[in-house]
């Protein structure tokens, strides 16, 4: 899933390549991807891209007084092309959901919004204000702005596990499954730690880790071509997606806890005092 660093990089890429260009045509290949009716998506035609922004994990393409908001979900992506095909795509065929031409079709540049797999969660809104999108209106503070004091205030009295809290967009915006694993590993904290019980030292380490992990990822990602961002993300991960490989800090094997449709990874030596966390699919959890 694209998270804060990748969406920030995509926004940067659009600021560098799309701002100043005019939308000449929008091809809607999947009717279900569009979540708004008014204003109609055809209102984008003839509008110039004036900016690109990010709200948590939402991408915001600004076209004057309208915003094309995109949430890429788990398997969505933005593909930039210096020359897009002129032939309109067939609806319901393949991964393409929407195509935005920023020049003469068949000659000019633009971007595709695509989604792999059969579960289609990619979502697009055309709105006058970003906060008209319910997911944006519910966002907590952006993860890049959260410091130690903010974390203490956000977590005070809460009983969620740390893994759950870090990925709750209404608490902290922008962090998903992969970077939460990296943050917890860097902070040397268990995914099952109760956030309201974190002591002062743990909060200090967590705040430092949130900043260090995300800033480093943004620096690696911004300036990369959109097609290379996924590979750049994987290359920078120390524990997420590395089950069975040695921890780069201590050499212990990275372990995994699986859920119905996702999993997280952690290092027992670095994060849980050597204790293994039982798989959520089992009836007993080790704390």
From TrEMBL:
SUPFAM superfamilies with a match to the protein in the record: Glucocorticoid receptor-like (DNA-binding domain), N-terminal domain of MutM-like DNA repair proteins, S13-like H2TH domain
BP GO annotations: base-excision repair
Keyword vocabulary terms for this entry: DNA damage, DNA repair, DNA-binding, Glycosidase, Hydrolase, Lyase, Metal-binding, Multifunctional enzyme, Zinc, Zinc-finger
Record InterPro entries: DNA_glyclase_Znf_dom_DNA_BS (IPR015887), FPG_cat (IPR012319), FPG_N (IPR035937), H2TH_FPG (IPR015886), Ribosomal_uS13-like_H2TH (IPR010979), Znf_DNA_glyclase/AP_lyase (IPR000214), Znf_FPG/IleRS (IPR010663)
Domain FPG-type: start-end pairs: 238-272
Pfam families in the record: Fapy_DNA_glyco (PF01149), H2TH (PF06831), zf-FPG_IleRS (PF06827)
Reaction equations catalysed: 2'-deoxyribonucleotide-(2'-deoxyribose 5'-phosphate)-2'-deoxyribonucleotide-DNA = a 3'-end 2'-deoxyribonucleotide-(2,3-dehydro-2,3-deoxyribose 5'-phosphate)-DNA + a 5'-end 5'-phospho-2'-deoxyribonucleoside-DNA + H(+); Hydrolysis of DNA containing ring-opened 7-methylguanine residues, releasing 2,6-diamino-4-hydroxy-5-(N-methyl)formamidopyrimidine
GO molecular function: 8-oxo-7,8-dihydroguanine DNA N-glycosylase activity; class I DNA-(apurinic or apyrimidinic site) endonuclease activity; damaged DNA binding; zinc ion binding
Start and end residues of each Formamidopyrimidine-DNA glycosylase catalytic domain: 2-93
Known cofactor(s): Zn(2+)
CDD domains documented for this protein: BaFpgNei_N_1 (cd08973)
Family per similarity comment: Belongs to the FPG family.
Name of protein: Formamidopyrimidine-DNA glycosylase
């Amino acid at each position: 899933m694209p998270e804060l660093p990748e969406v920030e990089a995509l926004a940067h890429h659009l600021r560098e390549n799309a701002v100043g260009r005019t939308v000449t045509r929008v091809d809607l290949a999947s009717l279900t991807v569009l979540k708004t009716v008014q204003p109609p998506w055809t209102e984008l035609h003839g509008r110039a891209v004036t900016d690109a922004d990010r709200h948590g994990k939402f991408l915001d393409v600004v076209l004057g007084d309208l915003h094309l908001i995109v949430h890429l979900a788990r398997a969505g992506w933005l593909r930039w092309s210096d020359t897009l095909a002129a032939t309109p795509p067939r609806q319901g065929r393949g991964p393409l959901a929407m195509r935005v031409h920023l020049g003469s079709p068949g000659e000019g540049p633009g971007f595709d919004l695509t989604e792999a797999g059969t579960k289609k969660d990619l979502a697009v809104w055309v709105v006058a204000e970003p906060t008209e999108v319910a997911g944006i209106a519910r966002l907590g503070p952006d993860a890049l702005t959260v410091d130690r004091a903010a974390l203490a205030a956000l977590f005070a009295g809460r009983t969620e596990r740390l893994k759950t809290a870090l990925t709750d967009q209404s608490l902290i915006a922008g962090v998903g499954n992969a970077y939460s694993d990296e943050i917890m590993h860097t902070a040397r904290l268990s995914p099952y730690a109760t956030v309201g019980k974190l002591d002062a030292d743990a909060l200090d380490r967590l705040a430092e880790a949130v900043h260090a992990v995300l800033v480093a990822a943004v620096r690696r990602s911004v300036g990369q071509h959109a097609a290379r961002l996924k590979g750049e993300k994987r290359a920078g991960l120390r524990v997420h997606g590395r089950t069975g490989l040695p921890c780069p800090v201590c050499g212990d094997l990275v372990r995994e806890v699986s859920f119905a449709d996702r999993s997280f990874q952690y290092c027992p030596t670095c994060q849980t005092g050597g204790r293994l966390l039982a798989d959520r699919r089992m009836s007993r959890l080790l704390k």
